[in-house]
């Protein structure tokens, strides 16, 4: 008889686990319902490049140049002038109340300055308490305003002429020319959803047995730590597989996210990522003494994963130490892989390092879990 | 060769010594009762024997396997029934048995499970969730599950707590039937009537083994003398006896009063005084029961602990 591993004993544990999973209706529903709900909710809700933001206009005169400027701002899609303020004080109040994100002030001498050839000025005040809101709206401004002004003076032709010989900067928005947030969010959500459900479910796997008193019995019977670990981890791998199918199908059908790269490469990466996650959950399970502690540890891990992995905020925007911290989160590496493969069509050599990192996590978590597993009740 | 042969077992949790120099031998086919108050170390000792805990000190073998190094081999040949029901309440009776049968790699699976269900009389309820069973049935299921792989040694930790008398009787009949087939049984219990159904008993208190032997031996070795008092106003007599030299226990039993002491001379003197003081009270020699002995042990070891604490 083999002490370390037997398929029959592993089979016993797997069958038991699947039956329990099936009986626990709410948890089961959560495992499949939550990903879909989160995907639809966040996929449609999160937008990194907000448009049609409320703005107030303080215009001292209504000459053609002012009107041209206002309509130019509107056509960028970022500004929605639904307040016309009579005075600077009124506009100030609107912004303080949060009714508008921008106040555009076009001074009375704007038209005169344009005609005289002086450099005309107008003021845009942005509510930068949330910097992300203001950034897109402001970045396009310079060119838009100049072109509008030239057009208003009937100088399209001259505009092209003036531009000739000047420095020209060519910007290509690669992989996502329209800057659609969902291209970034939806593949990332697959990682986040897996991170949450997989780690949480497996983190309570052992503590639940301990709390219900069944652990004592399980340990008294001939089952090895490896069998117990695989018996707990493999069923959730199957659940993870279902979640992956659900999310990828929704990405295609609901959000029309392009899938350029190799599906088999992505699925390989997903498999290693999910394996790392369930082993992380199981490791937590060997450390925590109660289900409550296990959940707390899960969330302790979950928040940094969301905030520092590059899912919500640009990874490169973080200070070096935070980037280092991000490197030790499996989600960081997974996000790089899935975005590279899905959106950029990256091949294995381009993502080999990241996959290597995930493999290291798998080995590390499995090792820690097996060492930490208490074979006795000591 | 003894089935259980352990000596000098010590187990500490923090600075608390839960098992203190416990030595125990159990021969093949014996039913040994393991007695002692709550928290005396019975469960811990049993867990050490089936490899669930590692002793801090002490050595020994169970079924010839070293308890420190061979716990996997021990697990395969021991049936351990935990104090609290520890099968899966969200699995049916049949599923629980199948789970156990698969873990022990019993073949053919269906036959083993079907036979066990048949023996239990649970065939018609095999699809019922284990969590919905009553205490008595849970205990029968647990016993059935831990004898399914035909262990050579059965370790039962307070198997009949919260079980009605009829179910207890049936349970013990089953234990004796198994023992006559060569199975060795170590069973912990609180009940005196259960102790008396064992071939041998061991009494443990605060981690220390205080007595071991047959019921008669334990009672005889305790060296207690018991008298039975009858007469009017026994409650006053009881008050008068409490605390007198030589009187260790005074306990009313129906219309009589049992008085127990370890020093026969002093006890007789005390009783002679009381007989004079209270008219109509008759004193006759009585038989010391196992319960008297245990209560004597319990009050005695409490004193020991008190001394330890002071020292």
From TrEMBL, chain A:
Note the superkingdom of the native organism: Bacteria
- State where the protein is found: Cell inner membrane; Cell membrane
GO cellular component assignments: ATP-binding cassette (ABC) transporter complex
State where it is primarily located.
membrane
The residues that cross the membrane are 26-46, 185-207, 228-251, 257-282, 294-315, 355-373
Q: Where is the ABC transmembrane type-2 domain?
A: 131-376
What Gene Ontology molecular function terms does this protein carry? ABC-type transporter activity
Q: How does it sit in the membrane?
A: Multi-pass membrane protein
Record key words, sorted: Cell membrane, Membrane, Transmembrane, Transmembrane helix, Transport
Family according to the record: Belongs to the ABC-2 integral membrane protein family.
Indicate what this protein is called per its UniProt record.
Transport permease protein
Give the originating organism.
Answer: Mesorhizobium metallidurans STM 2683
UniProtKB/TrEMBL annotation, chain B:
Give the protein's recorded name.
ABC transporter related protein
Coiled-coil region(s): none
Q: Where would one find the signal peptide in this protein?
A: none
Say which family it is in.
Belongs to the ABC transporter superfamily.
Entry's PANTHER family?
ABC TRANSPORTER G FAMILY MEMBER 20 ISOFORM X1, ATP-BINDING CASSETTE, SUB-FAMILY H, MEMBER 1
- InterPro entries tied to this protein: AAA+_ATPase, ABC_transporter-like_ATP-bd, ABC_transporter-like_CS, P-loop_NTPase
Record's keyword terms, sorted: ATP-binding, Nucleotide-binding
Name its species.
Mesorhizobium metallidurans STM 2683
An example of a GO molecular function for this protein is: ATP hydrolysis activity
Top-rank taxon: Bacteria
Residues of the ABC transporter domain: 4-231
